[in-house]
Structure formats: C-alpha cells, structure tokens
User: What shape does this take?
Amino acid sequence: MNESQGNSPLPLREGRGGSSIIILGIESSCDDTSAAVIKDGVLLSNVTASQAVHESYGGVVPELASRAHQQNIVPVVDQALKRAGVSREELSAIAFTRGPGLMGSLLVGVSFAKGMAASLGIPMIEVNHLQGHVLAHFIKETDPLQTSPLKGEDTPTSSSNGENTLPLREGQGGSSPKFPFLCLLVSGGNSQIIKVNAYNDMEVIGQTIDDAAGEAIDKAAKVMGLGYPGGPIIDKLARQGNPNAYQFSKPHIPGYDYSFSGLKTSFLYNLRDWMKEDPDFIEHHKEDLAASYEKAIVDTLMNKLRLAARDLKIRQVAVAGGVSANTGLRNAFHEYAEKYHWKIFIPKFSYTTDNAAMIAITGYFKYQDKDFCPMEAPAYSRVTIK
Ligand code: KG4
Assistant: This one.
C-alpha cells in the first residue's frame, strides 16, 4: 500500500548522494537498538546495541527496554552513518520498524525517524518487522562491512557475533531466493510459513495457534534454570546430548499451522515426574533434555514446511528470525535440501536476530515503489504480513 502518494507532507528530494538511493534503517521493536545504511541495495553499515539489563529478569522488561532505546538511539544512528561514510544530507529516506513489537520500544524508533526525516525534509518508509526478516535474504554486503558492535558505557555490547564477511555476497548459498519461495519465520514471537510471491506480496499460509517456537525454547530453558535468552543455551547443550533420549508429545494440528503449548507442557510434566525420583535430574541429564526437546521442535517445524513445499511445488526454501540461528534447525535444512532437492537460504547469524539491515533493505525496495508513509503514521504493536 502506498499511503502517502500525493498526501505526504514531506517534499521528495534527491539527496546529495546524486542518483544513488541511500536508506537509513532504524529498528527498535524489542530489546535491540539498531541502525543501518544501505546504498543502492548494498549494505554499508549495521550497528546494534543490545540490552544486557534484561538478563537478570529472565525476559525483556518493556519499560527498561524503552529507556535503553532512548539512551542508545542517538549514538547508534551516529555510528551507522559514520561507519558508512554517509552524511545525513545524503540520505534519500528513513525506513523504520513500525510494528509489530513492544509499543514503548517501537515509539522510540518511530519518533526518532519522524523527527530526523522532518528535519532533513526526506520521506519516511514504514516497515513491517516480519517482512524485514524475510527480506533479510536480499541484503548484499561489501567487504569490509562496518557491522562491528557498538561498545561504550551508555551503549551495551551488540549481539553481533563478529563473524567475518566475504566480498559481495547475498546470503548462504551464493544467491538470493527467486520468487515464489517459502520462508519459515521463527522467532520469540512468531512461527509462520510464508509464501513469498514478491518483495511486497507475502502470504502467511501457516502459523502457530498458541506459542511461538522461540517462546517454547525459552520457557524450557527457564524451567531448567538456565539463563535468558534460553535459545542459544539450549542450542549449545543440545550439541552434546542425545536427541533420541526422551520423547515429548508432539502436536497434531491440521494444515500448515503449528502448536507448541502442548509440547511445552509435556516437557514440564515429564520433568516434574523425573525429578520426583532424582531431584538432580536436570543437572544429570541437561544435554539429553536439551537435545530431545530441540529435536521435537525442529521436527515439528520441518514437517509442516515439507508438506507446504510438496503441496505448493516450491523448492526454494528460506528460514528467518531469531530461532534460525539454531544449529539443529540449520542442520535439518541441509538434510531436507538433500532429501527433497530444495535450494535453501539460511541467513548469516547477524541477520537472524533483530537488526536494522533488514529494515533498510525493505526500505530500499519500498523506496523504488515510492511507498512512503505520512508523518502521522503511528506505531503498531500487532500486525501480520498481508
Ligand atoms: O527474532 P528474535 O531475535 O526476536 C523476536 O522474537 O522478535 O528471536 C528471539 C528468539 C528467542 O526465543 C531466542 O531464544 C531464540 O530466538 N534464539 C534461538 C537461538 N538464538 C536465538 N533459539 C534456538 N537456538 C538458537 N541458537
């Protein structure tokens, strides 16, 4: 939808970058403050400040997240521009995450984007966070890419894992997916199978009817007394355990939808029974528990994805979102690719969690459609892909 054609209060102007399209992306939907610069589709910088403050609470505390975003947003945007070697005046437009996410967190990014766009007299582009995750597969990089973490007393360390970047690449597999492709979007808040027909045409064909996969993993980690977020910890333990040691009841949901609440409960009840016999059961078996639980989740995710790929006769299959960092899920993608002749697309680790590079690349595509949004565009906490 192009809400603003003809009614944007902002005059469209060409930045000093000449005919180049230079987009600043801003992401603040949860607990990562991130800014990125993309020039003509190529990522120049991607700076993220994550918030260690939530660790001791075992989950994201919305009020603390908003305050940390307020602290981080100015230095993060400054660093992204500096590392890209781009001045404010060269920007063509500002793309920002409008939703879904935590309202207080979103408001910081949305308000900042509005103020900056108004002061520069350039258009704003609203981005659906979920669409951004899917389009992360189209990020092109240069070498050396300025994505190193932002460090400083006021800005906690970035979640970037510091992996090396290769000269101009488009995601694992050497190329971006071709339309139409299927994307499994798995994060702390979503588990969806999306049929991606074009950059701006996506259909959710299956989704969780209760908990998201990441939520189910984090919950199991919490029950086991592991830290937060539980996903990376479960992943690490699972690598040392036997995935067939324990069986948990798997859901039987029609179609391509998911359900993870039963699995979560089954894990909880089994654990309670085992601990009656051995109070140190978790300590003695945490690797096998993690491996078996992770397997149950990965099998569930992959089975539905395979059904969708078979029925729709689509063999280009991508994965996105925080849980796509999971080693077991990544391995399963490779196994299915071999077995079912899929061409798979797995994002770099730095694009699995929340990042502004995916917001900037989505903004870049929308800029070419002149899909701008008006100044009054509010943040929204809930929205799905249309
Ligand atoms: O996409 P994301 O960063 O945030 C949103 O939910 O929007 O996803 C976060 C989720 C958390 O549930 C986290 O535990 C999970 O992704 N996660 C993982 C791994 N890394 C992050 N789950 C399994 N294995 C991982 N390596």
Notes: The first strand starts at residue 22 and ends at 27. Residues 1-11, 151-173 have pLDDT under 50 and may be disordered. Residues 2 and 369 are 8 Å apart (CA to CA). DSSP finds nine helices and eleven strands in the chain.
